[in-house]
Hints:
CATH class of the largest domain: Alpha Beta
Number of domains: 3
Number of helices: 17
Shape: globular
Largest sheet: 12 strands, mixed
CATH topology of the largest domain: Transposase Inhibitor Protein From Tn5, Chain A, domain 1
Distance between the termini: 75 Å
CATH superfamily of the largest domain: Transposase Inhibitor Protein From Tn5, Chain A, domain 1
Structural class: alpha+beta
Amino acid sequence: MVTVAAGRFAPGHLGELTQVVPFDLVDAVLDETRSVQHRLRDLPSRVGVYFLLAMCLFPEVGYRLVWSKLTAGLAGIPVASPTSKALRDLRRRLGSAPMRALFEVLAGPLARPTTPGVRFGPYRTVSFDGCSSQRVPDSERNRSWLGRTAHHGYPTLELMTLVETGTRALIGAVFGPTAEGETGYAGRLLHLLRPDMLVLWDKGFDGNDFLAAVTATRAQVLGRLRNNRRAPVLSRLRDGSYLSVIGTVRVRVIDARITVTCADGTVFTGSYRLVTTLTDARRFPAAMMVALYHQRWEHESAYYALRHTIMDGRLLRSGDPAGIEQEMWSLLTLYQALRTVMVDAAESVQGTDPDRCGFTIALQTARDQVVQAADIVVTTVEPVGLIGRRVLAALLPPRRQRVSTRKVKSPVSRYSERLDDGRPDASRTVTDLDVTVLAPAADERPLPDVSRDDRHTHRSPQSRRERVLELLRADPSRRWPARELAQHLGDITLGTMYRQLSRWAQDGHLRKCGPGVYTSSRENPSTPLRDLRKR
């Protein structure tokens, strides 16, 4: 016996996930956004909301097949049989406002304070990160909004999210053209930070203004610091870290060398430069902060679930910005609903870390429940439903230490020509991990009381630009391809080399004499292009 809504509303469900997105919540969101139909149609607005969520749950099929899956379990109940155009018109009537409002209701931290893996002392760990690889159809309207990305030909969307790292739940999200930049989008989510949060982030978020804005929310910070960032050593601490200041914010800087030994005997060495507002070295030792920072990579798992587990690498469907916005809010809402069920399942068994819950199991079970129209309405009092039971029956093993390949596999990626950074070709199990905190040099010259971003205000005599100019001036008649310059420097990716050479040429420091080819601005090049191509 299938229990669904009556009459024309019967196809409006999402299987067991309807318990997370119930009828009354959808009706309230539609009423708030003034999206309720003016007359009762064969396809009411409530049905449209569930259709949009199902559309993201089944991204591999068209509108008619999505509708067939919603109605497959409604045997004996008369339902409409709309055309693709009718379903497309339903999307247009709804717009993106209801889906955005629905996401904002569901978004937020999911874990209790006692849930394993979600807190560091008194702080809930969260993270900022952007994803700029979600492709959309190459239509004229999408290109006019997002532009065309040269490395794969499709317009791409910039998605910025604030994530609870312990559960990978979405606390907030914004998206749009990639031109605005990550910190610009992250600034729109600062109102979601709370004093009991510890914010993790990767390099690129350490600008003076952004750091000051985050600390103004009274949230704490732990993030990567760019290597070219100069911070004054105000006071050395016993754990090897030191107190400093960035802009107007008093911080603590931790330089660490990490040596990883793998099961096959290979050894890899890397370095971290971290900055944190947790300045008490006794309460928060440097080695502990370095180990904690790895929680930031949980954000990458959230994006993997969105782009690969749900979407399976597919493009979004919509050919215009309004449709893209509606579809993205629907996708984020579906993701959050799945995470909600998974966290509830983990918390039903004391001591279970949400990391061990398999997203693929939850997704595939939710798809089955939609086709069967099962567990739409709660009829029995159980701690978890079928999705939760299947997740708990196949918990992943505790997280193991391993070295990730971080290799670029797509031949059309802009990073496909990245210089070899020495990382392994396949993931390897780690048998030993040694963290050495590097104290600042004792003879280091004192710096000003206020740190500066040396991208704009300071250039070392051995800066990257000076090293490039030294090569060009050594042989003024030679034409240098960007690839050869990058290989000579050895510490820069080819994409970054192209961008910096272009900027230096615009500033008059060197001369561009062909596509990606540069020479000294002081001499006229004499090497013909045809000879350069033979090299």
